[in-house]
Amino acid sequence: MPAEPNASQEPASPLFAAIYDPATALVERTLLRPHREYLVANLDGTVLDLGAGTGAMFPYFNSVANASTEVHAIEPDPHMRRQAEEKANAQATPIHIESSPAEALPYDEDTFDVVIASMVFCTIPDIKSALSETARVLKPGGELRFFEHVIDDGWRARVQSALAPLWRRLAGGCHLTRQTGTQLVAEQSFDVVEIERLNLGITPIRPFVRGRLRKRSVSSTR
User: What is d(CA 131, CA 127) in angstroms, rounded to the nearest whole number?
Assistant: First the structure.
């Protein structure tokens, strides 16, 4: 199960972009569905998909959208973005897609109620900058909701480390060995609402972390 090549500054090849949806169709319908549903549960307000990839989250946004929902997305990879735009055009809910990377979001401060990261931080070159930008564009009290694969333990971690250089080249810049959960909960702009580790997937894409962070108010970050 390859990771979703969201928000990477290392463009995926046209071939990788073309085969991504067919290769992940079964896992999308089964394994990933409840986790994508988790990300959109009780969703309301202005939403940013932080790295749309081919638009896998778009039908889920559409399924929960109401009159007050406004959806935006970024996807810097042109091959992935083309497919995301096609999916966006098929949804009843308008989705506004930008080509910007996660480290330089083209939005004003305090724009979004929710930012969703679904298998994206594995491809972002500078996680710290992306988290800073996410905090900037989130309203105080807004949520960062995430579902990310991370490095495993023991022999699985050794397999991931061995495969990592080749995997990164073939899978649109995806890093197999990141400790994304640790980096997310350490970010000073957020409080942890919930986080859990899921022994989900097959090596080398295993395990995952899933959860929600809430942006602190200005007074609480001082």
Answer: 6
